[in-house]
C-alpha cells in the first residue's frame, strides 16, 4: 500500500462518523424533491413533451358582459397547421362544470359573463400558429353593461339562469335585544387577491387507445377534476386518467378546470397529444381569486370592555360563477366574531354573482376577510374605552369549552389567551438609527422616504382562527397503502404534494412506525383511490391518518410472528431505530432480519367524525377542528407619504404537535408573508369588470425585500385528541391573521381608521402634523 493510501486510510479512520439523517416524526427530515427543485430537474407540466405533439391556444372574451351574436371559425380552420377548432358546439357531454356548483360553461355560447371567459380553443402544429388561429376566430358581440358592484346585484337583472344570489346565511345566536354600554361601528372593504402561483398553468393531454384520454396536470384534487372532465367529455370516469406532475406551489385550487377541459377535448378531437401552457395573463384571467368583500359591523361591549353583542353584514363578490363561494360564506359568517366569547351574535351573509372575475378557494377564504374587520372593531373599542388593545382582547378571548356563534362547542384545544400573552410579552425590536447608511430601514427605502422625523412606529395585534378540513357535512376521507419489500417501504396515496410537505410527512410516519429508513412516496394518479383536495390542512389530517393506519397494520403483520414465537402480544414489542425489542429485553432483532425477504402491505382509510350543514338560523356543528394564531405587528409609517414598512411580526400559533420543525416554521413564515402582501400591496384591479395589468408587474407581490423579520415566539403543542398525531394545520391561519395585525399597527402609528385592504398610502397619511 502506498504512503498516500495509508495516510488516507488513517485519516478516514480518525474522521468522526457522519451525523445520522433526521428520522421519524418530530425531526426536520428534508424534502425528497428538494435537490431536484434546486437543480431545476423537477418535472413540471410545462416541461413535458410527447411524439406528434400539437399546441393549444384559447380565445377569451375581451368583455366582462356581452351577448354572443355569432362565432365564425372558418378562417381559423383554414389556416395551415391548424388541426382542430372547438367551441361550445363541440362539447360532447355536460356543458357545465364547477368545483362547488356546476354552473360554468366549458365555452361561452350565448352570453359572456366575465373578462377572459373561454369562447373557443385551437390545436395546431406550432404554438404561434395556435395563437394566431385563436385570434382569427371571429366573434360578434353585443356588449352589455356589466354589473360590478355586488350591492347592485340584488336589484340587477339575473346574470345567470340560477340568479344572482348564490347563498344567504342569516345567523341568529342569543338575545336580539341585548345591548352594551359602548357601541362602535365600521364599514370595511377587502380587495381581490390573486393566488399568483409560482408557475402559470400548463398541461399535456394524450389520447388513449380505448377512446379515453390521459392528462398530465399540476392538479391539487385529481379525482374531482377527473370526474368533472369525464362528465363534460361524455366519458366514463375510468376512461379519463389524470397523472399529477410536479406542482410549483399552491395557495388555492392550483389548476383551473376551465384550462383543463379544452386540453383534453382537443386531444380527443385530433387523436394527438396536445399541450397548453398558459401565459401569465391567461392565468390571471382564468383561475379563481380571493373574494372581494364588503363588511358592516356593530360591536356592543359593557363598561369593562367585555363583548355583549356583535352585529354584522357580510357581502362576498363571487364574480360570474358560484365555484366554492357558498363554503367561503359559511366560514365568513361562522367566524365573523373571531376567537372571542360573544353571547349574542346576529350576522347576515350573502354571496352574489357579478360580472367580475370568478372568486373561489384561496387559503383562509372567508376567515381572512372577517378577521380584518373584527380586529379593526376591537381596536375601535379599545380606543373608546381607553384600554390597551391587547388587554381588551385578553378580556374576551375564547377557550376550550366556549361556544361559537353557530352553537357549536369548541372541543379542541383553544389556547388563545396563551398565544396573545406570548406575542405581547415578546421584546419589541429596536428603533432604526437615523443615519444615511440605514435609510433602507425606513419606509420606502433609500430615496423613497421623506424626512426621518415623519416616521411613526406602531404596534398592533391580530387574533385569527380557521377551520380544518371541509365543513357542513363534507365527507372527508382518504385512502393510503403502505408496502414493504426488500427493506424498502413505499407509500401509495393520492394526496398531492403542493408544497405543504405531505410526502415528507408520509415518509416520517412510516419511519416512525416501521423503523425503516428508506421510504418512497409513489407518484399520484387517478388509478389510486381518492384522497381529496390539498387544502385546509386536509392531508396532514386525513391522508396522514390513512398512512399511519396502514403503516400500523403492516407493523402488526411484521411483529405478529415474533410475538407468537415468544408467547406475547404485539403491544409488548417496540420498534426503535430499526430494532425490534420486547419490554423485558428477551427479544432483540432488527427489522431487516424480521422481514426476512417477505413482502408486506396494507391499505387503510381515515375519515374524521361527521359534521352537519348550518341550519336556517346559521346553527350547527359544521366544523371538525379549529386552529388559532396570535400576531403582533410592528410597523414604521411615513405619515407624510403614507408608505409603510413592516418591521417585525411576532407569531404564536396553536399547532397541536410539531411533526417537522423546519417544515412547520417555513409554512408559518410563508403564510405570514402572504398576509403582508394582502395588507399592503396585492389588489387585482378590475375597473368595470376588466382586469387591469394582468401580469406580475401590475400586480405587486411582496418580494424577499418586503418580507419582514418574522419571529415565531411560541408554538403551543396541546394535542387535538381527535386528530391523527394531534397535529393541526399551520398554513392558513397566519395568512388570515397577519393582514389584520399589520392594519392594527398602522392604526396605532397614524390614528387613522384603516378600513380597507390593501392599505392605500392616502389611508396612512396624517395631516396637520
TrEMBL record:
Pfam families: Ald_Xan_dh_C (PF01315), MoCoBD_1 (PF02738), MoCoBD_2 (PF20256). Residues 1-32 are annotated as: Disordered. Residues 39-145 form the Aldehyde oxidase/xanthine dehydrogenase a/b hammerhead domain. SUPFAM superfamilies: CO dehydrogenase molybdoprotein N-domain-like (SSF54665), Molybdenum cofactor-binding domain (SSF56003). Residues 1-16 have a biased composition (Low complexity). This is Xanthine dehydrogenase family protein molybdopterin-binding subunit. It comes from Streptomyces anandii.
Amino acid at each position: 500500500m502506498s504512503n498516500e493510501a495509508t495516510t488516507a486510510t488513517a485519516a478516514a479512520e480518525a474522521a468522526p462518523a457522519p451525523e445520522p439523517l433526521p428520522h421519524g416524526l418530530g425531526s426536520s427530515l428534508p424534502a425528497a424533491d428538494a435537490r431536484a427543485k434546486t437543480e431545476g430537474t423537477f418535472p413540471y407540466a410545462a416541461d413535458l413533451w410527447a411524439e406528434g405533439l400539437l399546441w393549444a391556444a384559447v380565445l377569451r372574451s375581451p368583455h366582462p358582459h356581452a351577448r354572443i351574436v355569432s362565432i365564425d371559425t372558418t378562417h381559423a380552420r383554414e389556416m395551415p397547421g391548424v388541426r382542430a377548432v372547438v367551441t361550445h358546439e363541440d362539447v360532447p357531454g355536460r356543458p357545465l362544470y364547477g368545483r362547488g356548483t356546476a354552473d360554468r360553461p366549458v365555452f361561452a355560447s350565448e352570453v359572456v359573463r366575465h373578462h377572459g371567459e373561454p369562447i373557443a380553443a385551437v390545436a395546431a402544429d406550432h404554438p404561434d400558429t395556435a395563437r394566431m388561429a385563436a385570434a382569427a376566430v371571429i366573434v360578434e358581440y353585443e356588449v352589455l353593461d356589466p354589473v360590478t358592484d355586488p350591492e347592485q346585484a340584488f336589484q340587477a337583472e339575473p346574470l345567470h339562469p340560477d340568479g344572482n344570489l348564490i347563498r344567504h346565511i342569516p345567523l341568529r345566536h342569543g338575545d336580539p335585544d341585548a345591548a352594551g354600554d359602548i357601541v362602535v361601528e365600521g364599514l370595511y372593504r377587502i380587495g381581490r387577491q390573486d393566488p399568483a402561483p409560482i408557475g402559470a398553468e400548463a398541461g399535456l393531454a394524450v389520447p388513449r387507445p380505448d377512446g379515453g384520454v390521459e392528462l398530465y396536470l399540476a392538479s391539487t384534487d385529481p379525482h374531482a377534476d377527473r370526474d368533472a372532465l369525464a362528465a363534460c367529455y361524455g366519458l366514463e370516469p375510468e376512461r379519463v386518467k389524470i397523472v399529477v406532475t410536479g406542482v410549483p406551489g399552491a395557495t388555492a385550487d392550483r389548476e383551473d378546470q376551465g384550462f383543463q377541459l379544452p386540453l383534453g377535448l382537443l386531444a380527443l378531437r385530433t387523436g394527438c397529444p396536445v399541450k397548453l401552457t398558459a401565459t401569465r395573463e391567461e392565468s390571471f384571467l382564468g383561475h379563481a381569486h380571493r373574494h372581494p368583500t364588503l363588511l358592516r359591523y356593530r360591536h356592543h361591549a359593557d363598561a369593562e370592555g367585555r363583548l355583549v353583542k356583535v352585529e354584522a353584514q357580510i357581502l362576498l363578490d363571487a364574480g360570474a360563477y358560484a365555484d366554492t363561494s357558498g363554503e367561503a360564506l359559511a366560514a365568513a359568517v361562522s367566524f365573523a366574531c373571531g376567537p372571542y366569547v360573544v353571547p349574542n351574535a346576529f350576522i347576515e351573509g350573502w354571496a352574489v354573482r357579478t360580472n367580475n372575475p370568478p372568486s373561489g378557494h384561496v387559503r383562509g377564504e372567508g376567515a381572512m376577510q372577517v378577521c380584518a374587520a373584527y380586529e379593526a372593531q376591537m381596536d375601535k373599542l379599545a380606543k373608546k374605552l381607553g384600554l390597551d388593545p391587547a388587554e381588551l382582547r385578553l378580556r374576551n378571548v375564547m377557550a376550550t369549552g366556549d361556544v361559537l356563534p353557530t352553537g357549536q362547542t369548541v372541543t379542541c384545544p383553544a389556547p388563545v389567551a396563551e398565544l396573545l400573552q406570548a406575542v405581547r410579552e415578546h421584546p419589541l425590536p429596536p428603533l432604526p438609527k437615523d443615519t444615511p447608511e440605514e435609510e433602507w430601514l425606513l419606509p420606502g427605502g433609500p430615496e423613497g422616504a421623506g424626512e426621518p422625523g415623519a416616521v411613526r412606529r406602531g404596534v398592533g395585534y391580530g387574533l385569527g382562527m380557521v377551520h380544518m378540513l371541509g365543513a357542513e357535512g363534507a365527507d372527508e376521507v382518504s385512502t393510503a397503502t403502505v408496502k414493504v419489500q426488500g427493506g424498502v417501504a413505499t407509500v401509495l396515496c393520492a394526496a398531492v404534494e403542493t408544497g405543504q410537505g405531505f410526502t415528507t410527512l408520509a415518509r416520517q410516519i412510516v419511519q416512525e412506525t416501521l423503523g425503516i429508513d428508506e421510504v418512497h412516496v409513489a407518484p399520484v394518479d387517478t388509478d389510486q383511490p381518492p384522497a381529496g383536495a390539498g387544502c385546509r390542512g386536509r392531508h396532514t389530517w386525513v391522508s396522514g391518518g390513512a398512512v399511519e393506519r396502514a403503516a400500523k397494520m403492516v407493523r402488526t403483520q411484521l411483529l405478529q410472528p415474533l410475538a407468537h414465537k415468544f408467547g406475547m402480544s404485539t403491544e409488548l414489542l417496540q420498534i426503535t431505530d430499526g430494532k425490534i425489542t420486547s419490554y423485558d429485553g428477551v427479544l432483540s432483532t432488527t427489522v431487516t432480519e424480521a422481514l426476512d425477504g417477505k413482502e408486506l402491505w396494507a391499505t387503510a382509510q381515515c375519515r374524521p367524525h361527521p359534521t352537519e350543514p348550518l341550519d336556517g338560523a346559521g346553527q350547527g356543528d359544521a366544523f371538525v377542528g379549529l386552529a388559532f394564531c396570535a400576531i403582533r405587528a410592528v410597523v414604521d409609517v411615513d405619515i407624510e407619504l403614507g408608505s409603510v414598512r413592516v418591521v417585525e411580526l411576532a407569531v404564536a400559533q396553536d399547532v397541536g404537535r410539531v411533526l417537522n420543525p423546519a417544515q412547520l416554521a417555513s409554512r408559518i413564515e410563508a403564510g405570514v408573508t402572504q398576509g403582508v402582501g394582502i395588507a399592503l400591496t396585492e389588489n387585482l384591479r378590475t375597473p368595470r369588470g376588466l382586469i387591469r395589468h394582468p401580469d406580475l408587474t401590475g400586480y405587486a407581490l411582496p418580494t424577499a425585500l418586503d418580507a419582514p423579520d418574522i419571529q415565531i415566539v411560541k408554538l403551543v403543542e396541546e394535542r387535538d385528541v381527535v386528530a391523527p398525531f394531534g397535529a393541526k394545520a399551520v398554513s392558513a391561519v397566519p395568512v388570515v391573521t397577519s393582514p389584520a395585525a399589520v392594519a392594527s399597527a398602522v392604526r396605532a402609528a397614524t390614528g387613522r381608521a384603516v378600513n380597507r385592504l390593501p392599505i392605500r398610502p392616502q389611508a396612512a397619511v396624517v395631516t396637520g402634523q
